[in-house]
Amino acid sequence: MRDRVALRAPPGDNLGVEKNLPGPTSRTRDPFLPGALIIVTLCNPREKFWGMILALASEGLSLSGAELASFEDLILMVKSGEPFTPAVVFFPMHRIERVELDSPDGSLPSLSQRFLAKTGLEPSTVLSDAVSSSPASKEPA
Q: What pLDDT digit, counting tens, does each position of 109-118 carry?
């Protein structure tokens, strides 16, 4: 009688994992939707940006915000009433190393909470108003 050979899946095939992934109607919520306030870490060159997601796709991330290195300067500018126009940028996916929600860490406030506390303005309102008033987003008359 012949020995039976057990068939094994290649290491990359997760045959034991259930294939029924949550669909768009599931109760799971995607935290990285347009309007979410995030911190994105980029590579080549290494940079960090804080801002609001405009769009997230397989091609990359569109963001309205500012470089993290100039965050305190941004707060001072807004607080003193100087005109503020956030950067509206697109980062291709190959440059994105990490995207994280701007949320508090223990007793440390989030950047959004710091922005609100120091300027009295909601960051999402400031970032979205600047985008909606840009010439590229206006409809032709």
A: 999 999 999 9
What six digits make up the tokens of 29? 């919520």
Backbone conformation region of residue 10, classed left if phi is above 0, alpha if psi is from -120 to 50, else beta? beta
Give the list of residues 6+ apart from residue 24 with CB closer than 8 angstroms, or none: none
The two beta strands, 87-92 and 37-42, are unpaired
pTM of the model: 0.72
Write the pLDDT tens digit of every residue in 20-49: 555 555 555 788 999 999 999 999 999 999
Per-domain residue ranges for the chain?
37-126
Pairing of strands 37-42, 96-101: antiparallel
Residue recorded with tokens 């707060």: 75
Please tell me the distance from the alpha carbon of residue 20 to that of residue 24, in angstroms, as a whole number.
12
Query: Which CATH number is correct for 37-126, 1.10.10, 1.10.530, 2.30.30, 1.10.150?
Result: 2.30.30
